[in-house]
Design brief:
The protein is α+β, with helices and mostly antiparallel strands and 368 residues long. 24% of the residues lie in helices and 33% in strands. The protein is built from 9 helices and 22 strands.
Length: 368
C-alpha cells in the first residue's frame, strides 16, 4: 500500500501541444491517500482511462510526475510500481484452470504452496467460483472470465495499489452488485489503495470512499458521495450525479434573492454580485409542487411513476425542470408552481459553484 501523488500532471496525445484544448488530461495536482478507495467517474472520453494508465505506468505523461510514497516512478514500468490492474475486458490464460489463473501471480513471487492454496480458495469464494477451480478457462462465459480477472487482481495482498478500469462492463447486473460488495469488503479487510474507473454513478457511489468526477479532461470535484449530492462544485457534477440530475435555471443574483425570468426565489445565503453566466441549481428531491401565487410558475408536461416515487416533468421558460413527488401523490387542482427549498439551492457562475458570503448549514438529508 502506498500514497500516490500526482504532481503538475498533464497529458496530450499530440507531439507538440500548444494550448489547453490539445491536452486530453488537463493539469492535475492530487494526492491519493494510502489505503483509501477512490472512484474515477465521468462520461466516455473525459480522461479517466488516460489518468489510470499514467498511474499504472502504461503511459508516460507529457508533463509532471507520479510519486509512489516519496519515490518518483514517472518513467518506471508497471512491474516496478508493484500494482495490480483489472481491465474492462477479461484477460485470462485459456489453457490454464481457473485455480491456476488465480494462483499465477503468487507462484511468480515464489509464495509457499500452502499459502497459495488458501488464498486461491478465499478469492474463489469471493467471486463465486469455488466449484470451478479445476475447470479450464477456455469455454467459460465472458462474465466468468472477468470474474477470474478480478480475482487475479485481488489475490495479492502486498501490492501498492489495485486499479480497476471499468471491470464490471461484461458482468450481469445481479453479479455486479455482489462483486462491488466483495470489493468493498476486501478493501475494508486489507486496506489496499484502490482506484476504480467507471461511467456508472451507482458503481462509483457504492464502492468508493471518495469519488473523483472528471469532465473534459479535468477533475471538477473530489468528495464523498454526500458532497457530490449536496454541494456539486460544477454544474456537470450536478447533472451527472442523480436521476434525474440537478435542475439548472438561469438567474440574476441580488443578495439573498435569485431572480429567474422576473420571479424572485429566496436563497438561504447572501451573495456578492456575480458575473458571467449565472444559474441556480437545485436537486429534484428538494422541489415541491404548490398552488397559489408563490413559487416558480411552470408548465407540467407529464408525471412518471417509477415505483418508489414519481417524477414530475415540467418546463420553465422552455427549459426542463424536474421534481420528485412521493409515491401515490395526487396533484392538486390548479397546482402549477414549484417551490425550492432555499437551503438546498446552489449558485453557479460559468458552471462553477459560488460560495455564499455567510455559510449556511445544510440540513441532514432524508432518504427519498
Amino acid at each position: 500500500m502506498v500514497q500516490i501523488t500526482l504532481d503538475n500532471l498533464a497529458h496530450s496525445y499530440l507531439p507538440n501541444p500548444q494550448g489547453e484544448d490539445d491536452f486530453a488530461l488537463k493539469q492535475l495536482d492530487h494526492v491519493w491517500k494510502d489505503g483509501e478507495a477512490y472512484a474515477l467517474l465521468g462520461a466516455s472520453g473525459c480522461g479517466k482511462s488516460t489518468l489510470l494508465n499514467i498511474i499504472s505506468g502504461l503511459l508516460v505523461p507529457s508533463r509532471g510526475r507520479i510519486l509512489f510514497g516519496d519515490r518518483d516512478v514517472t518513467h518506471h514500468d508497471t512491474v516496478a510500481r508493484n500494482i495490480a490492474q483489472v481491465f474492462q475486458f477479461p484477460v485470462v490464460y485459456d489453457t490454464m484452470s481457473v485455480g491456476d489463473n488465480l494462483a499465477f501471480p503468487l507462484r511468480n513471487r515464489g509464495m509457499d504452496p500452502a499459502a497459495i492454496a488458501a488464498q486461491v480458495q478465499k478469492i474463489a469464494a469471493m467471486i463465486g467460483m469455488e466449484d470451478q477451480l479445476k475447470h479450464k478457462a477456455r469455454g467459460l462465459t465472458a462474465d466468468a472470465k472477468q470474474k477470474i480477472s478480478l480475482g487475479r487482481g485481488m489475490v495479492r495482498e502486498d501490492v501498492n495499489a489495485i486499479l480497476f478500469d471499468e471491470p464490471l462492463t461484461v458482468i450481469d447486473p445481479h453479479m455486479k452488485w455482489e462483486l462491488r460488495t466483495q470489493l468493498k469488503a476486501l478493501h475494508n479487510e486489507f486496506g489496499h489503495t484502490m482506484i476504480y474507473v467507471t461511467h456508472d454513478q451507482t458503481e462509483a457511489l457504492t464502492f468508493a470512499d471518495k469519488v473523483v468526477v472528471m469532465h473534459d479532461g479535468r477533475v471538477v470535484q473530489l468528495g464523498t458521495p454526500e458532497d457530490l449530492f449536496d454541494r456539486p462544485e460544477h454544474t456537470f457534477v450536478g447533472y451527472f450525479i442523480g436521476s434525474p440530475g440537478m435542475n439548472l435555471i438561469d438567474a440574476e443574483i441580488a443578495g439573498n434573492t435569485a431572480h429567474c425570468g422576473g420571479h424572485a426565489i429566496p436563497l438561504a445565503g447572501h451573495y456578492r454580485a456575480t458575473q458571467g453566466r449565472v444559474q441556480i441549481g437545485i436537486r429534484p428531491e428538494f422541489v415541491t409542487l404548490t398552488t397559489g401565487d408563490h413559487g416558480l410558475p411552470v408548465t407540467i408536461k407529464r408525471i412518471e411513476d417509477v415505483g418508489r416515487h414519481q417524477i414530475l416533468r415540467a418546463e420553465f421558460a422552455g427549459k426542463p425542470v424536474n421534481a420528485i413527488l412521493p409515491e401515490g401523490f395526487a396533484v392538486p387542482a390548479g397546482a402549477n408552481r414549484l417551490h425550492f427549498a432555499p437551503e438546498r439551492i446552489n449558485v453557479y457562475a460559468d458552471d462553477w459553484r459560488v460560495a455564499p458570503l455567510q455559510a449556511v448549514a445544510t440540513p441532514e438529508r432524508k432518504a427519498v
